[in-house]
Amino acid sequence: MSGLLSSSLAKKYAMALSAFFLIFFLLMHVTINLLSVFSEDAFNVASHFMGTNPVIQFAMQPVLIFGVIFHFVMGFVLEIKNKKAQGVKYFKDNGAANSTWMSRNMIYSGLAILAFIILHFIDFWIPELKYKYVEVLPEDPTRYFHELQEKFVSIWRVGAYVIAFVFLALHLLHGFNSAFQSMGLNNKYTKGFKKCANAYSILIPALFIFIALFHHFNH
Amino acid sequence: MMNLTLKIWRQKGPHDKGQMVDYKVTDISEHMSFLEMIDVLNEQLVTKDEDPVAFDHDCREGICGMCSMYINGEAHGPDRGITTCQLHMRMFNDGDTITIEPFRAAAFPVIKDLVVDRMAFERIQQAGGYIGVNTSGNTQDANAIPISKHAADEAMDAATCIGCGACVATCKNSSAMLFVAAKVSQYALLPQGQVEAADRVMNMVAQMDAEGFGNCTNTGACEVECPKGISLENIARMNREYLKASSKG
Amino acid sequence: MAKLDSKVPKGPLADKWTTYKDKIDLVNPANKRNIDIIVVGTGLAGGSAAATLAELGYNVKAFCYQDSPRRAHSIAAQGGINAAKNYMGDGDSNYRLFYDTVKGGDYRSREANVYRLAEVSGNIIDQCVAQGVPFARDYGGLLDNRSFGGVLVSRTFYAKGQTGQQLLLGCYSAMNRQIARGKIEMHNRHEMLDVVKVDGKARGIIARNLITGEIERHSAHAVVIATGGYGNVYFLSTNAMGSNATAAWKIHKKGAYFANPCYTQIHPTCIPRSGDYQSKLTLMSESLRNDGRIWVPAKMEDAKAIQQGKLKPTQIAEEDRDYYLERRYPAFGNLVPRDVASRAAKERCDAGFGVNATGEAVYLDFATAFVRYGTEQAKIHNIKNPSKEEIIKLGQAIIEEKYGNLFQMYEKIIAENPYETPMMIYPATHYTMGGVWVDYNLMTTVEGLYCIGEANFSDHGANRLGASALMQGLADGYFVLPYTIGDYLSDDIRTGKISTDTPEFDAVEKEVKDRLDFFINNKGTHSVDYFHKKLGKVMWNKAGMARNEKHLKEAIQEIKEIREDFWKNVKVTGKLDEFNQELEKAGRVADFLELGELFAIDALDRNESCGGHFRDESVEQDGPQKGEALRNDKDYAYVSAWEYKGEPSDAILHKEELEFKDIELKTRSYK
Hints:
By secondary structure, chain B is an alpha+beta fold. Chain B contains 8 helices and 7 strands; from the N terminus they run E-E-H-E-E-E-E-E-H-H-H-H-H-H-H. Chain B is 34% helix and 14% strand. The model of chain B has no long low-confidence stretch (mean pLDDT 96). Chain C is an alpha+beta fold. Among the domains of chain C are: 268-429, Alpha-Beta Complex (Flavocytochrome C3, Chain A, domain 1); 524-638, Methane Monooxygenase Hydroxylase, Chain G, domain 1. Chain C has helices at residues 16-23, 29-32, 44-56, 94-104, 111-130, 163-180, 246-253, 300-307, 324-328, 338-350, 367-380, 388-414, 469-489, 503-522, 528-542, 549-569, 581-605, 633-636; strands spanning 36-40, 59-63, 81-82, 156-157, 184-187, 190-198, 201-209, 215-219, 222-225, 258-259, 264-270, 293-297, 321-322, 362-365, 423-432, 435-436, 449-451, 638-643, 652-657. In chain C, the strands form 5 sheets. Chain C has a 5-stranded parallel beta sheet. A 5-stranded antiparallel beta sheet of chain C has the order 11-15-14-12-13. In chain C, strands 16-10-18-19 form a 4-stranded antiparallel beta sheet. The model of chain C has no long low-confidence stretch (mean pLDDT 95). Chains in contact: A-B, B-C. The interface between A and B is large, with 40 and 51 residues.
């Protein structure tokens, strides 16, 4: 594995594959979150399942955490390597003439998302762990919806949430198609993919934002 | 006729630190090529017993790949589908300040002023940018293997790379993927190239990495600035070829 | 002085090369490892030679002044490469290609060499395809051919408009394979500054590392010069800025005869000069003349108005246009050979009918072709009563398909849309048929010193046909030299490594260093370019497309004066031991200043009009050919080989008489 990852192309594949995984995870996450808009019960059932099912908890969750960490670490490794490859900086560099802002600033949109994920962990995941494994409180299958609503009371948190998802959209707008390209999918047959990927990149973060705003205003 | 201020990177040699220096040129015709404008500056400098600006150039018709200037923040300047030598002064206005820098990358060390060392490209080609056939002439007849027009045309499009290094210079990561992919693609598309396809892509990529080029993050800037319009599809093709080759072990 | 021996083998023309190859001495593989060969120049000829010699097992040291062999100016050839494959089944054969080449060269080339060239031409295509050169193909997947340069068959293979590039990259890839194996020691950014002879044999070179300025000695058992032509003697040409004659001229000064320097090809379809700052000219493929019509205004007042920018070409009525090629040459019209088309353009412009500010341009107009193709397309697509605009649009699409890249290139340079207004073109120096004299083995008059490709004089006579330069370069490098040089080197298997620590190397290195020191220390008043431009003007005006005794004598005198001025007043900035482009140019221009004079001397000697060489004194006096070039086979059917004797004016002329046993000498007629 380490031998394979030593080449620049293998690093690209790894980035792309972890990206696909995370993109799929986002889809799942937004689906469950969306339930909260339509039905409190459905959301609680889904959340309870996700929170207590041993396969999800002990197989999928570590994979997800690994995926997230891997994607970030690899992103930083590549960034450092790429910075080194540049050598002396240009006095004047007009990147806007030939590439999108998104593509040139993946590291920054990525950092913004990382900051958000840390916040997210503090908000949801760490309390959840405490609840289940440290304090070992009795399981209450109806607690999830209220916990969710509470988090969106603060305008500041919602603001941070919205900003983070704007960054996620920017990150995806380059990243999704970039992952296709990295995996070698770019020819005249993949034009349709591109449009779907762009739609996804805007739609998913928009839904997350919608959910946050929905709960903020409907509390 | 235009009067211009030029900000040019001057560096005496590989070990000099180098700096941007301002020059003025006057009465520049809009019909001049960019390099002819530099010729005018150099003639001025020689007259004043100063060292003229060193820059690479040869064919001055956009095919040899020698010329390599980073003008106003873009490889080969603001026009598209051309090399520096094909850039004309009509792209600029009277009174403009133009910055001129060498193609930058850690793998392209500066030799002097705007001249850089692109030997890394040579070594990548030597690592596998060929079909291993002897030049004895004892090959089969040229028409023995029909090649579809589509494949031949696509191979030709990849083969038009002039090896100027604009892709590397323009890439924020100084990646050489477009250059390497163009060669890998050309041979991957032709039946003659199949026998060595796996070794070729593995060896060329390994050499590319060894030279210290950065990684591709698919910004697509290389495709935009490439004077020959080499498509990103070639990079995708190389990615497939590499996957295929890796899976063979 | 010994008579020139061309060493052409005996026997029937068609068997000479085969018999020759059967009889030559070979070097066994183990011994090849002990033999070094220097190849200077890495274009099609040098690159293919270096790769092939390395494959055979010799140790090759290759040199080029560019940063990579891939940048040699062979790369700029657009149109294609000829080969007698007869894939089209239109009656082509080795003999026909041979015949066309000799006739095209106006019967001033050596029969046996040309036949050999035609014979190996087919091999070149096989070889290049095996190397992965993406030649154009038809829908059946087979190789496509096009016709070129007024011959009667389609034998030109092409790779879009970039055939030279693709062939060179093929060579380059073959070289890379050998560089990786360590069989070629590649010296990029190195310039050969002289050849070293030991006991009369070429045994090495002195080269300058262009990055560090270091002077280096390199030894070998044989030296191959493949450094291209000397078109830059005109300052403005379609050659690359760095293309130079230094290697060829230096070996001339060391004993290699220089042949036919006056044979220069002026290409008719180049983009005109726009001002005095012009540094180089750009060629557009001759194929444009298949569909474009060439004209200038018939009335002087129109011409004047156009030159002053007061009138546009599209405003000139059909009857006020002078389609001078169609007028003068009704049979061939716009498709007359390069030299004829070039001279006719000059004649009109000299008479004041030129169509840009400099007065040195004629129109190449596609309007008729738009209508012709458009009408045809309308019929194919069943468009009833198409409007004029529709027709033109359809026609333009066809032209775009054929010449799109050329039209785009034109627009980038001139900033006019050639779909809307006629192109402007003017002739420019393009190729030099003359060069270092070589025998059948491609060896110069110095033993062990070879010269191949455009740098030698051999195959094109007084005029080169389109798509033949690539063919010759590759034929020499891939298929001829590797045999002939082996025959010579078979005597060298016991010689052992050649030492560079000898008085011979000391002496030549000192010469080279002294000259470089002189340039740096001269601290004169004018830049190198100043002298180069002056030389170019004299060459263009007095030894250009049409030459006469008076002008040539003046040219000889003027070049001498420029040369003297140069050696007194040239200014070279910078230092010896650094990257110094002014110093590089100084050495090259110094050599052009001598070569230019020999060029004029040769042109003066050849009082006949043949191929690219046109003497005002030698024209048909009457009959239908009145005013056209008149060749003189009785007095001038020879190769002029000049021996260096100190000054260009002291050069001694040796004549290699040309015999034509398989071809009857005819007058070229295009009326």
